[in-house]
Design brief:
By secondary structure, the chain is mainly beta. It has 1 helix and 21 strands. The chain starts with a strand and ends with a strand.
Length: 232
């Protein structure tokens, strides 16, 4: 089966690119600080509570209309800035956030150099985000949201009206909002249609822990949660 790669919403098969996914099964490194304590054997390991970015490489090839396809691929990749959504057909239920790392070292072959192979290397955030976690879930007060992974998820919570929400003992309150407020627990920011709403919100940004999470809210409000499940 021919495997494909999508970056920034564009399937690179549009440029005749197909891939091998042999480098896509690696895991990121956990961030730690190692300290030597005089008079003590071994080192003291301090867990920094995070994972490092990971480089993911895809051996790739173009076997038709190489000059035109390669020119289009170069232009498209150069147009991307910062992190973009990265998907491959080896992991259809997951996606990463990635930025192209380095340039392209292309080796051509075939009659009149009509074929080419190269490696696409991406600097990726450590998480493999699950597609199942990118959809907003309407939640009733007192409901339980189940996190199927082993990792704390930092959801996007949209709240309508005024009131408060408590998740696993962490409470946020909001008032004076417009139609709704988006509470982004990843970047720890609150906004409405791009406008900053932090001054209307108080409290700690909640997380969805592995297993059951009880959601309680008060006031004239309704809540939708996009959980953002992830694995490594």
């Amino acid at each position: 089966m021919i495997q494909t790669l999508t970056i920034g919403g564009r399937n690179l098969a549009d440029f005749g690119v197909y891939i091998s996914g042999e480098g896509t099964y690696n895991a990121p490194e956990r961030s730690i600080t190692e300290e030597v304590v005089p008079g003590r054997n071994g080192s003291l390991i301090i867990d920094n509570g995070r994972y490092q970015n990971i480089e993911v490489s895809y051996p790739a090839f173009i076997i038709r209309d190489f000059p035109r396809n390669m020119a289009g691929l170069r232009s498209y990749l150069a147009s991307l800035s910062g992190y973009s959504r990265l998907e491959d057909s080896y992991h259809p239920d997951e996606y990463r956030m990635a930025a192209l790392s380095g340039g392209l070292d292309v080796k051509t072959s075939g009659y009149m150099n009509r074929e080419g192979k190269f490696t696409l290397t991406f600097n990726c955030k450590p998480q493999r985000f699950l597609r199942s976690g990118e959809y907003a879930i309407p939640v009733k007060s007192g409901a339980t949201v189940y996190n199927p992974t082993l990792f704390d998820a930092k959801p996007l919570i949209r709240v309508y009206g005024n009131g408060s929400i408590t998740v696993n003992g962490e409470t946020m309150e909001w008032s004076g909002s417009s139609e709704y407020v988006d509470i982004d627990c990843d970047i720890q920011d609150c906004y409405y249609m791009g406008a900053n709403m932090n001054s209307y919100v108080t409290g700690n940004f909640p997380v969805l822990s592995p297993g059951n999470n009880v959601i309680v809210f008060t006031g004239s409000t309704s809540v939708r949660i996009t959980p953002r499940w992830w694995i490594l």
